[in-house]
Amino acid sequence: MAVHDPIQAAQESGHAGHEVACRDEEREVNPLHPDKPKTAEELAVFGGEPVIAPPHRFTWPRLSDADKAAVLSLLEKGETSYYGREGVLTDLEDFWSGRLQGRRVLGTSSGTAALHSAFFALGTAPGDEVLCPTNTFLATVMPLVQLGATPVLCDAEPDTGNIDPAAVAAAITPRTAGIVVTHLWGHPCDMTPILELARRHGLWVVEDCSHAHGASYHGDEVGTFGDAAAFSFQGAKIVYAGQGGLLASKDQETHERACLLGHFRVRCEQDIESSLGRYSGTGFGLNYRMHPFAAALAMESSLAMETRIADRARLLGRLAAGLASIPGLIPPATRPGCDRGAYYGFKLRLSGQWLEAGAEQVARALACEGLDVHPPGSRPLHLLPFFTDGSVPLRRAAPPIRMPEYKRGDFPVAEELWRTSLSLPTFTFSDEEHWVDRYCEAFEKVARHLPRIASRAEL
């Protein structure tokens, strides 16, 4: 008769099954060894008492009274749509223009829309190659495909996870038009060599700042380095709008072309100063306007951002210090001269016995202790079918488009980062400090049982 494996059962049955596999709240005995009582030292995955019960579940955002009042005020005034630069959208754009050294800014319906607008406005055309990180979210790259360009993926730096300038330099060809960088998990990319490469080869640079609101590189805020920058205000970000984004442009023409792509008529008439204004009546085909409710939420959370950044830095610094004291755990590194700002995502690296036990097995054991911990959700792009199949049926009844055919092993640093990392909550509020300490306690408990997790001898 097969012995019940709670870790395997959790993997096969998903989150709900995982809860059952970790512990049975109604029983006072170890389900694997009914003759033995549960103990605090025994791992919960083996039937012991969890460190945190009921399990901790990180939630974001916490809507404030100010958030709710801002949206309710718009409802009461009947401001349910904007056609140009008006209302709270004006306040939001002015706020971010002030942060970003006076750049022209444009509220958008999402961060993805802001990226698409940037690529379009900078002249990305069919046949162009654009150098991109493989270690990023899909939105950094996929709008390029709609413009007929080819994303050329590049490997990551081992400490920050950001695009490696050396990999960028090696990938430049005569067809290269630009570079897009992601300030991953809030850590700024190494912009000095990237900007020098762009200058030398005549390339544009787009910054994806979706993780990095308020982050800075040697004293200057991200979003002020490239030819354009995109911010996401999606609900999981420190500045949240439900869905929303922002484009910041270095020059007037880029701003005007972005307006034409997604902000026809009134906004174009307001903002376009050149001969492109003759096309304001139709625009160039899309509607990327930000909803007033989204703008109101983004404005309120922008005003609260600095306080939340400071609180998050303090709590995640405490978490990092606690975990760094446990052999084999490597908290996120921050380079000298860099500030993570919003610090979107706390990625813990595993080494030594933690890896011998297996990242997925460790994540299951930690989850059974009541932690909201899991392997990273986004694998490197070159491991996804769009980038491995070689050809993609992008358009119905048309020949598949040809794409670079990547394979496992092409970008070993990004793969290693993904394989050896765990995602932890981005604790932000003062009342979460006790959770930080309980998480460290749970990691210490699991550390004492790593050989047993690796062997699973008693299962």
Automatic annotation (TrEMBL):
Name under which the protein is recorded: DegT/DnrJ/EryC1/StrS family aminotransferase
Region described as Disordered: spans on this chain: 1-20
BP-aspect Gene Ontology terms: polysaccharide biosynthetic process
Native organism: Nonomuraea deserti
Any GO MF annotation of the entry: transaminase activity
Protein keywords: Aminotransferase, Pyridoxal phosphate, Transferase
Cofactor(s) of this protein: pyridoxal 5'-phosphate
Family of the protein in this entry: Belongs to the DegT/DnrJ/EryC1 family.
One Pfam entry name: DegT_DnrJ_EryC1
